């Protein structure tokens, strides 16, 4: 068992992750009523060492917490989920730094050199000039370039309260009682800290006033020490370290494994997490199907209708789908909208066509791309790679590119996968080669994914390279994609 860390979990993965965390030795705090009942837990209002919630796209989770708690959580996921991708943010959330203004932007924001990174100060930057020193705190968010977002509203967290510089204060939205909100606000007004506001956390509810006042007094002393440290610190430098942030991608094998964990606790249909992540009618039907199962309805009948609903979402010839190419940086790139030229729902097979309007160079191939060129992509749902062949407007073959990835997953209107850096290319004039193998190795070493996925991906790349090398002039790789050896997951 690990050191007793606490965790709060919210979202569609809550039941499965709660089971895994409990088995790992975590305490669950602030559980929902449903989780209390499923696990026989008592409600504990303590603030968590690890806070977990759904990503906006529901294809994984985000988490923030104490370094030790985050590390144990990530190790658990990598150990138990074969294709999970774990993306750690280097900049610590909540860290306090003394930085130097190095750029002023046209939108009124400022870029601050923190020493270990550059961050964007979006508010309160209008009175700054180049070279000014400024004390900032790193927020959870990042800007579109991946830089940490900064604020001048410094906070000092405690168990029951957070002191925030330059605000009036507030009460956690999770405290629903109006009487309790009023009591906490009255306590804040009676304390009256100069320049700092008191924000009451969920754990403050129903705590004796003397306990709350005692903590605020300690936080006020801490705030004063912090201001003194900031005054003495050189710039750029970190004054106080922060929490660690991580987000994950749960590809198909991970979602299936989480289904199995959830099924140990409550009636769960196959594909629960995958279909819940789709949202809409699919998520609603999953809830209905599981309610029917829990009442003892025939499993075959319930699953038949669920499968029919899922198959109705499989693209037909002539449909359009987008290709979502997720990167290990956390960014999700759209490779554009493609036309379905072949489709077989039983095989999970799709052949897609994209026509290019802008000229350039094909990445990895080093071959010129012209307006009017087109690409044919062959993929199979559940296979950990796809092959794209490129052609000129008059159908002259230019080369092929195999993306090695997590198993390809179908979502409504799109196919999605996580690119694992390593790829295989073939150009008729040069033959076949593996590219970016070092990127795969570095990503594994940094803990983005486990050793098993690394070894499988490298072996697959070698197999595809050998297949490409046998006939570098060949452009149709459908049989390679459809080879049963490669399909690791089925819906």
Shape: globular
Radius of gyration: 26 Å
CATH topology of the largest domain: FomD barrel-like fold
Which structural class fits the helix and strand makeup?
A: alpha+beta
The CATH architecture designation of the largest domain is Beta Barrel
Largest sheet: 7 strands, mixed, barrel
Name of the CATH first level of the largest domain: Mainly Beta
Q: How many strands?
A: 27
Count up the helices.
Answer: 12
Portion in strands = 25-35%
Describe this structure in words.
The protein is α+β, with helices and mostly antiparallel strands and 491 residues long. It has 5 domains: 6-90 and 246-251; 96-151, Nucleic acid-binding proteins (OB fold (Dihydrolipoamide Acetyltransferase, E2P), Beta Barrel), CATH 2.40.50.140; 155-242, no CATH class; 269-311, no CATH class; 320-486, FomD barrel-like fold. 31% of the residues lie in helices and 31% in strands. Strand 22 (374-380) and strand 23 (385-391) form a beta hairpin. It is globular. The model has no long low-confidence stretch (mean pLDDT 92).
């Amino acid at each position: 068992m690990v050191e007793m860390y606490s965790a709060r979990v919210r979202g569609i993965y809550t039941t499965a992750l709660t089971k895994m965390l409990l088995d790992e030795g975590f305490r669950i705090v602030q559980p929902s009523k449903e989780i209390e009942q499923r696990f026989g837990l008592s409600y504990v209002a303590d603030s968590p060492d690890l806070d977990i919630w759904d990503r906006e796209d529901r294809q994984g989770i985000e988490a923030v917490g104490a370094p030790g708690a985050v590390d144990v959580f990530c190790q658990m996921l990598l150990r138990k989920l074969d294709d999970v991708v774990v993306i750690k943010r280097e900049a610590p959330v909540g860290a306090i730094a003394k930085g130097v203004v190095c750029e002023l932007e046209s939108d009124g924001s400022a870029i601050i050199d923190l020493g270990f990174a550059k961050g964007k100060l979006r508010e309160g930057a209008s009175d700054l000039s180049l070279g000014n020193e400024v004390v900032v705190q790193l927020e959870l968010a990042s800007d579109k370039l991946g830089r940490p977002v900064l604020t001048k509203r410094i906070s000092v967290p405690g168990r029951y309260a957070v002191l925030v510089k330059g605000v009036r204060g507030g009460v956690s939205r999770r405290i629903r009682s109006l009487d309790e909100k009023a009591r906490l606000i009255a306590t804040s007004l009676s304390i009256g800290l100069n320049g700092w506001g008191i924000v009451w956390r969920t754990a403050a509810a129903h705590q004796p006033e003397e306990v709350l006042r005692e903590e605020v007094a300690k936080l006020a002393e801490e705030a004063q020490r912090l201001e003194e440290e900031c005054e003495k610190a050189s710039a750029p430098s970190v004054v106080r370290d922060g929490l660690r942030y991580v987000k994950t991608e749960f590809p198909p094998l991970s979602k299936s494994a989480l289904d199995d964990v959830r099924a140990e606790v409550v009636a769960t249909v196959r594909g629960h997490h995958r279909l819940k992540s789709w949202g809409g009618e699919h998520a609603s039907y999953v809830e209905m199907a599981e309610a029917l199962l829990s009442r003892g309805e025939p499993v075959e009948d319930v699953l038949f209708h669920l499968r029919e609903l899922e198959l109705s979402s499989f693209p037909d010839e002539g449909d359009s789908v987008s290709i979502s190419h997720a990167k290990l940086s956390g960014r999700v790139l759209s490779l554009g909208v493609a036309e379905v030229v072949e489709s077989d729902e039983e095989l999970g097979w799709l052949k897609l066509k994209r026509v290019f309007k802008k000229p350039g160079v094909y990445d990895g191939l080093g071959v010129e791309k012209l307006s009017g060129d087109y690409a044919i992509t062959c993929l199979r749902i559940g296979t950990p790679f796809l092959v794209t062949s490129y052609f000129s407007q008059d159908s002259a073959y230019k080369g092929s590119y195999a993306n090695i990835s997590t198993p390809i997953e179908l979502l409504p209107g799109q196919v999605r996968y996580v690119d694992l850096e390593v790829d295989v290319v073939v150009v008729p004039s040069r033959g076949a080669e593996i590219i970016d193998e070092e990127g795969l190795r570095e990503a594994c070493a940094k803990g983005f994914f486990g050793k098993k996925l690394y070894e499988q991906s490298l072996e697959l790349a070698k197999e595809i390279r050998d297949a490409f090398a046998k006939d570098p002039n060949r452009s149709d790789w459908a049989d390679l994609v459809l080879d049963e050896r490669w399909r690791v997951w089925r819906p």
